[in-house]
């Protein structure tokens, strides 16, 4: 199933409740929460306490993307804050299999993200433990970047592997997803789409969210 996961990284942080309500009314499937520590990526956003407060606004699934060093230290905190999906980076977790199991032991979904330069082969031996793979189509850390076109082959290769192994794994794409390219990205084999500035910089956030949904369905 195709899903839209708007990233609040591009939202108005002075009015997050209103911004989230608009994307929910527009049909957002998930709420994408980018957690950055200023170490793994060159930016700092928010942590578990903010997510815990946002949890009061909506019951939509929280799609928590941890762009932080040693994420295993904070898994329990983000679960307690209300995460429904936690995605960690292959590049940031030394004991990736253990971290995945730590997430799944809480009864929520586990994902692994790959930066543009990281090959799919690095997660070959943990694929069967995953619910989702997030392919970064920009270098993580900032919103509003342009999609790296070379990621097409990477997404297509991952989709082929998933089908060959008959696995039930979502492919999420994050970075540079816009109205004029989401249909093409869908054709690569992705089924969950993170959209940030493409939605939150629009004059009518609710209507813009609906436009993305209409293209997919």
TrEMBL record:
InterPro entries: Aldolase_TIM (IPR013785), Ribul_P_3_epim (IPR026019), Ribul_P_3_epim-like (IPR000056), RibuloseP-bd_barrel (IPR011060)
NCBIfam families reported for this sequence: PRK05581.1-4, rpe
Keywords of the record: Carbohydrate metabolism, Cobalt, Isomerase, Manganese, Metal-binding, Zinc
Binding positions (substrate): 7, 65, 141-144, 174-176, 196-197
Function per UniProt: Catalyzes the reversible epimerization of D-ribulose 5-phosphate to D-xylulose 5-phosphate.
Organism field: Anaeromonas frigoriresistens
GO process annotations (BP): pentose catabolic process; pentose-phosphate shunt
Family, per entry: Belongs to the ribulose-phosphate 3-epimerase family.
PROSITE patterns xref list: RIBUL_P_3_EPIMER_1 (PS01085)
Pathway annotation from the record: Carbohydrate degradation
Required co-factors: Mn(2+); Co(2+); Fe(2+); Zn(2+)
Cofactor note: Binds 1 divalent metal cation per subunit.
Designated name of the protein: Ribulose-phosphate 3-epimerase
């Amino acid at each position: 199933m195709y899903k839209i996961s708007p990233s609040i990284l591009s939202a108005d942080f002075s009015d997050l409740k209103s911004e989230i309500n608009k994307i929910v009314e527009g049909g957002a499937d998930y709420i994408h929460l980018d957690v950055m520590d200023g170490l793994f990526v060159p930016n700092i956003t928010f942590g578990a306490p903010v997510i815990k407060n946002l949890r009061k606004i909506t019951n939509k699934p929280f799609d928590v993307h941890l762009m932080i060093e040693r994420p295993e230290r904070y898994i329990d905190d983000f679960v307690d804050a209300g995460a429904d999906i936690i995605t960690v980076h292959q590049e940031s977790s030394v004991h990736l299999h253990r971290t995945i199991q730590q997430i799944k032991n809480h009864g929520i979904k586990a994902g692994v993200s790959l930066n543009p330069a990281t090959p799919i082969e690095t997660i070959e031996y943990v694929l069967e433990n995953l619910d989702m793979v997030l392919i970064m189509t920009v270098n993580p850390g900032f919103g509003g970047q342009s999609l790296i076109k070379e990621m097409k082959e990477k997404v297509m290769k991952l989709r082929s592997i998933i089908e060959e192994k008959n696995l039930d794994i979502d492919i999420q794409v994050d970075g540079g997803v816009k109205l004029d390219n989401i249909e093409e990205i869908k054709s690569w084999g992705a089924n969950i789409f993170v959209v940030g500035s493409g939605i939150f910089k629009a004059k009518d956030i609710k209507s813009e969210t609906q436009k993305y949904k209409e293209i997919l369905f």
